Amino acid sequence: FGTVRGSTERDVMVNSVAPVWDGNETWLVLGGAGLFGAFPLAYAVIIDALSIPLTLMLIGLIFRGVAFEFRFQATPSHRPFWDRAFFGGSLLATFSQGVVVGAVINGFTVSGRAFSGGMFDWLTPFSLFCGLGLCVAYALLGATWLVMKSEGALQQRMRSASRQLLVALLAVFAVISLWTPLAHPAIAARWFSLPNLYFLLPVPLLVILI
Q: For the chain, which has fewer Cβ within 10 Å, the N-terminal or C-terminal residue?
């Protein structure tokens, strides 16, 4: 969205997700409620350990949701502001989600069934890279969506962008797949021990084929 300058093409992009917009936002409620109901201890630890990135994610989602609705009502002179708010909120929410995933992989310091680490334990090079990686993944998802939902010059540009983003995403997968076992011996032991290796080996091959 941020790479497209024409208001007409941006209208096409926004209108393509309008019918499913509200349903797409329910994942946050379902995910949080499901985690709390099924694993309350994990919920308590994660909320304490990741309060900052989760708050940033919520702020991004709020900006994105408000900008999405206000953009349709804004005057032409104000619409660029809401376009930037929509793009910025989406980028912040996506990056924060990736940081959360990276922090979960890194693990948390727990003592007495409660989080005992620091406020910024989540801030590591690995978690930041996961944030960037998820931005690439969502960009690919959006580009392929527009290939289906648009036509003409916009569709052609999105098709070209999809190829480039696919290569970038495969590179992200490769880096994370190597970084994770090297940084976490316990994960390496699980991945490369028998018989786990036989079950996990097809996963990267399927990713490449699909």
A: C
Closest CA to 98 of 126, 121, 78, 70: 126
Q: How far apart are CA 36 and CA 30, in angstroms?
A: 10
Task: Using alpha carbons, list the distances in angstroms from residue 117 to 11, 26, 50, 109, 113.
Answer: 45, 31, 11, 5, 12
Q: Which of 4, 22, 139, 138 is nearest to 69 (CA)?
A: 22
Which sequence spans correspond to the domains of the chain? 7-180
What predicted TM-score, i.e. pTM, was given to this entire model? 0.87
Residue 200 pLDDT exceeds 70: yes
pLDDT bucket at 64, cuts 50 / 70 / 90: confident
- Report the 10 Å Cβ neighbour count for 127: 21
Rounded Cα distance between 67 and 39, Å, is 34
